[in-house]
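Risk register update: the risk that structure generation would not scale has been downgraded. Supporting records follow, first protein first.
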Amino acid sequence: MQWINLREEPVVYVNSRPFVLRELEQPFANMSDFQGIDAARLEGIEERLKSDILAEADNNSAQGNMLVHTEEELGEIRACWCSAHQRNIKTSQQVYQKLRDAEGYKVRYLRIPVTAEGVFEAILGFIS
């Protein structure tokens, strides 16, 4: 099986839930800072984001929590605390690595960042 991630922004999984970076003023819009980014750089940013999350949890809370924002109802954003420990914070690459190694799935993971407004056909030659 092959899994292709087209997201053009860093994704970190906290307790199996995906979280992405957003601007405070535009929580439902992709950040333009990542437009045109290549996969290797994007995965490096995810690793750094994971490290930052773990550092925040260590520094800000004796319980190892971090502050996230989640959508409760359509359009309603609410801040909440979330447990953040090495075992439950994963990058996209680590999620699929665990599927292969620990759970035995035969999955191949590819990261091909595509701008939301971009043309999908431009990458079809890459994945065939």
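Supporting record for the second protein:
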Amino acid sequence: MTNPQLAYLLSASFLLGAVIGSFLNVCIYRIPEGESVVAPRSRCPHCLTTIRWYHNLPVLSWILLKGRCAYCSEPFSIRYPLVEAMTGGLFVLFFYRFGFHPATPVAWLLVAALVTISMIDLDHQIIPDVISLPGIPIGFLCTFALPWVSWQSSLLGILLGGGILLAIALGYEWLTKQEGMGLGDVKLLAMLGAFLGAPAILPIIFLASIMGTLVGVPLMLIKRAGRKLAIPFGPFLAGAALIYLFFVDKIDPVARWYGEIFVYWWQSLWG
């Protein structure tokens, strides 16, 4: 593939991701409100005027309109173009990583789900079941397109993902007499186990915990909130999952080793 061809494909990937990101903005706003993500069309949250298509071009329209509504001039959050740009950038990253391979659309699907989940969790500290629960069977089916994830590993990943976090959540609640982790995180990790398989579970928990600590401890010190500061864990799980997926063939041999042991145990159990 020549450099111009690669540049064209990467640009097309960014454009597709940015368009998907525009739709994700709708999902992020409407799903917690229980509204349809299909109808009505996008509208200004201030004046409720329907936004015309040429005022809704990903990233570009926000820049041209200086971040304001074309009708009432009220400001739009900068998060809209950031979500579009981030989704586009992740689409480029995973196309560059996997190229013309079935793993690419699977990665894109996972990116879209995790961006939506992360932003909703940041806003409302909930992980919507409407994404995580259907994501479990969808992730299982997607593993048939991935040569490094077997259906056995996917099933075991669902059990491990949900089971480990559930045990951690119940143990923390039993020790501290207060809820430290919601069941939404449990369902999310089960979904990640479905997509990425059993070997991904412990590395994802490990990476997410490190990132959560690096962000959470300074926030606790700044806000002087101690353990009472509620920090959503979903975005850290999402980030760790995408890091794992990008480096899936370079993952630490120890992770592969324990994953193979679990898969072997699972296969032996079912004959």
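The chain has a mean pLDDT of 85. On this basis the risk owner (M.S.) recommends closing the item.
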